[in-house]
Design brief:
The complex is a heterodimer of chains A (376) and B (111). Chain A contains 14 helices and 3 strands. Chain A has 376 residues and is mainly alpha-helical. Chain A folds into 4 domains: 76 residues, no CATH class; 54 residues, no CATH class; 50 residues; 135 residues, no CATH class. In chain B, helix 2 crosses helix 5. Classes of the chains: A mainly alpha (376), B alpha+beta (111).
């Protein structure tokens, strides 16, 4: 005759022989010790108790209501010691080779290491400010203002910029781009992976079964990728409505300034001056043209920042805004160009003159080409 | 040292990959995973699997939902999250690379 102890395993009552109870208690205590420091300790213990209860139930029936000591020991042997190597203090973490093992390499999902690169996309000059902004996660406008302040203070900013331009490499490949932003290389990564899968499939052409397996895998990968992309795009949502209007306004001003710049350069070449302003005597024409372009660049700069800093340039792989928005932009551009030409032709004597002369120049060019063609 | 012992660390490292694979194939509960692993070299016990599953859940690779079972209390059915699928894909890529290296390096060992 043996003493029986009733226990509660995750909400179920079981009767164990006393020896079995002692063994089980020791096992669960050891498990709890092994899991100390694990944030999910209670949950794991509950799971283990549940699994033990399931195993006990298999031993019990209508005529057998007590789990004997040997059965308890068998179950414990089946369960195996509770091993927790997930904790940050676990020895395994120290032994793991850097970057090795599936656990140590959670893909690019969590936090791809950031590196400093120049980002030319959406850059004003060589992308130094853009790269710095991406690296530190600060708005690029702020960095540019800082640089501008540095420039004003005896040109230190210019020197700094030039040095950085040569020292910091430009992000050219998608991987570098991703590293610059600290995000996974998405589209390119996906294409690369697809290509790898494709070549993998070519190798299996001899083997029918392997080919079928590859095809299935490939299709599944594609579906998963499509799904992920869908989610990504959905996650961005539409640009901020206020930013949209702001960006559009900046866009119109930019368009107008670009037009003005083109007109100024043409006028400079044809008449030697811009709207009554003439470059200082002795300045070569090419220098005047370059200075004019630089002047316009400077005027346009804040508007560019306004336009691309807010709604439109949200990041490396971010869509540039919904379709109607882009359409509106190009349409507005065209309308503005036409309006400007019409207005200039009717209400602006100099512009009218320039266009008139341009017309003549075009005629002459066409005539010259025709003459040359006839001679052939 | 037997081959079995030599590969202890490798088996341990690969366990998460296999669990990801098993969960990706179907919604399973812990005992399913154990029985699927049981007939292989990767036979595992609850004492190892439960902490691993909870770690994977903490890392948001897997998620579970409670489901009633015909016999006994409700069970936790595990499934992969988007992150888990991504990790599975990355690990599979890496695994392909490794096995390609093993195959191509040095003497040809294929029977």
């Amino acid at each position: 005759m043996n003493k029986v102890i009733t226990i509660n395993l995750n909400g179920n009552a079981y009767q164990l022989e006393e020896d079995g109870y002692e063994a089980l208690r020791a096992y669960l205590e050891a498990a709890a010790r092994g899991l100390s420091g694990n944030p999910d300790k209670d949950e794991i213990i509950a799971d283990i108790e549940q699994a033990i209860a399931d195993k006990f139930r298999a031993f019990l029936g209508a005529n057998k209501t007590v789990v004997v000591a040997k059965e308890v020991k068998d179950v414990i042997a089946q369960m195996g010691p509770v091993q927790d190597d997930s904790g940050p203090a676990a020895g395994a973490a120290g032994q793991g080779a850097p970057g090795g093992g599936p656990a140590a390499n959670p893909g690019a999902a969590a936090g791809a290491p950031k590196r400093l690169y120049r980002i030319r996309e959406g850059a004003q000059l060589a992308g130094v400010c853009n790269g710095l902004a991406a690296y530190f996660g600060i708005d690029v406008t702020l960095i540019r203002i800082l640089f501008a302040v540095c420039v004003l203070s005896f040109g230190a900013g210019v020197l700094l910029y030039i040095v950085m331009m040569f020292v910091i490499p430009a992000a050219n490949t998608p991987e570098e781009m991703a590293a610059a932003q600290g995000i996974p290389a998405t589209a390119e990564d996906f294409i690369k992976r697809a290509k790898e899968g494709y070549y993998g499939g070519m190798k299996t052409f001899g083997d029918r079964r392997a080919f079928k397996e590859w095809k299935r895998q490939f299709k599944r990968d594609m579906r998963q990728n499509a799904h992920q992309w869908h989610q990504r795009w959905a996650g961005w949502g539409p640009p901020h409505p206020g930013a949209w209007a702001f960006g559009s306004l900046a866009g119109i001003i930019l368009s107008a300034l670009t037009l003005l710049c083109v007109f100024s350069v043409i006028s400079l070449i044809l008449t030697g001056g811009v709207l009554g302003f003439f470059p200082p005597f002795g300045m070569p024409l090419w220098l005047a043209v370059i200075l004019t372009i630089i002047a316009f660049k400077l005027i346009k700069w804040p508007f560019r920042v306004m336009r691309y800093g807010g709604a439109y340039y949200g990041g490396y792989d971010r869509p540039m805004g919904p379709f109607p928005c882009l359409w509106w932009h190009s349409f507005g551009w065209l309308l503005l160009v036409l309006l400007f030409f019409w207005f200039a032709d009717h209400h602006w004597v100099e512009a009218h003159d320039i266009m008139h002369r341009l017309g003549h120049a075009a005629h002459r060019t066409v005539d010259a080409i025709r003459e040359w063609w006839d001679q052939q | 040292m037997s081959i079995n012992e030599k590969f202890t660390a490798i088996r341990k490292g690969l366990l998460e990959f296999l669990v990801l694979k098993i969960i990706a194939a179907d919604k399973v509960y812990a005992a399913d995973i154990l029985s699927q692993l049981g007939s292989t070299e990767f036979a595992t016990q609850e004492g190892t699997l439960y902490p691993l599953l909870s770690k994977m859940r903490r890392e948001e690779l897997v998620d579970y939902e409670w489901k009633e079972s015909e016999a006994g209390p409700p069970r936790k059915y595990y499934q992969l999250t988007a992150k888990g699928r991504e990790q599975l894909r990355d690990t599979a890529d890496y695994w392909r690379k490794i096995s390609g290296t093993v195959k191509s390096l040095g003497q040809d060992i294929s029977p």
